[in-house]
Amino acid sequence: MYISQIQKIITLLCLLSFYSLHTNAQNPAYRPPAAKSAKASNLVVVTWKDIVVAELKRREGFASRPYKDKEVWTIGYGLHVEKWADMPKYPISESQAELYMNKRLMSDYENVNRVFPHFSENEKWALTSLVYNKGMTMVKNNTALWNALHLKDMASLEKLWISEFSNTSNHKYSRELEWALFSMNETKLRTLYEDSAVIVQNRNERNVDFSKIKKTQAKKK
Predict the structure, then answer these.
(1) Which of 10, 45, 106, 184 has the fewest CB atoms lying closer than 10 Å?
(2) d(CA 206, CA 21)
(3) 166-209 pLDDT, tens per residue?
(4) What Rg, from alpha-carbon coordinates, does the chain have?
């Protein structure tokens, strides 16, 4: 008796399954599940930090030995030598430069997060990029920008962010990318980020010997 009931249930389920498949096949609205794209496994997940790092590398370039930038000895990706006493002997490798860059970047991020904990992640990383380039002291000392940040005055911020810290075309490019990230202008951000990433990947001479450049320039004079 018990076995007979189980057999009836199984038979009923088979009939329902066959009916469902037949109906779906005849129904024009029915579409089989889409196959997963082969490209899906190759997708690269880009974080806000990835965008900042790509632009930072484009802007600063890599130097394995110290060079003077506005009378300050600099190495790696725009790092001031005197602040990194534990840095390995020169020349340093790109992987070593990336390690110290990341330490500095995370330190700047923590400082930004401490002052502006209510900011969204894209806003924090945009400001972190500016602080890495100009320093927190310079950003804070720009009273108009600092007040606009606290008030979240987007109209004033856009003007100040780009005009006050763009003394070169190189810096202006960075400021525009940072502002696109801060304001989430996705179209402009995507274009600028992709350009930065391509420049970093395709740059053949990142390990520049600045002493040779200076000697070459001296001979030309």
Answers:
(1) 45
(2) 61
(3) 888 889 999 999 999 999 888 888 888 776 655 544 443 333 34
(4) 28
